[in-house]
Please model this.
Amino acid sequence: MLDLNLSLASLGETKEGMVYDTLIIGGGPGGLTAGLYAARAGLSVALLEKGLPGGQISTTFRVENYPGFPEGIGGPELGSVIEQQAAHFGVQIVLTEVTGVELGGQIKLVGATNGDYRGWTVIVATGANPAALNVPGEEQLRGKGVSYCATCDGAFFRGKDVAVVGGGDAAVEEALFLTRLARKVTIVHRRDALRATKVAQDRAFADPKIEFRWDTVVDEILGQDEVRGLALRNVKTGARSELAVEGVFIYVGMRPNTQFLGGQLAMDAQGYIITNEEMETNVPGVFAVGDVRRKRLRQVVTAVADGAIAATAADVYLRGDANKGGVAASINEVPDGGS
Model:
């Protein structure tokens, strides 16, 4: 365990710079909450975020299932208030991109575009990004009608016909958002029923601007300099068709942001980090929270819970009271989570 005589309070500056009690990689709800709890416990905390603090929630039009907001709250607004609260309690939020890590030593090294950071503990909160369809035309037309964020890009399609690919909560919620702007929204789903919550489904079915293409996949995104349509295929009949649209919004799942870890942490086949109930990874002093870890439910409410648990576990680790068995004894007991 760590020698508390070498804690930040007595260490201060070293030749390599400050050693933080806790380094947090990622500024979504999980990372920000971890920072909030760690700072309130008296730990020195630096949070490294490459984009807009709030993570994926900042690209979500509205959140209606987070406790405390009966009428719902805008995603960017929720991300902003969590960030303000974390900063209020002393979390040092740094806008930089992490490029690599060295997690094996007692002091962890995190390399970023603006320099190296060192910490006694690390909490990985890098979340997940939208998955691609990997069909012809997608990469070439990215930003030219192909989008993964209706909240970000919906305004470019005012009065136009667009498609949303997917059938989960994100796809349906963003389709509903697009009805405020687009002339028509077609949801293309490979199954014959949506996977979204019943509330979202009911709204989509009742909206006259939304149409559905069931049992259908996208084989190609058509267009030269901009999207002009989709080549579709019915998975049951094999029938092919084309759908004329000027924009396509893709919501077919997420992929964890773990490439920068270089395989230093145990992960499942999809690349999600494996943890125990204390958010411990297989490397002592390293924790993972939110969408980046293997678990059943990936929501804001579960991310903030993960963050609180990880910060508390990091504090215990720093005090030298952590179970010496760590995650090694329990890592195989973590249930498989949906990806």
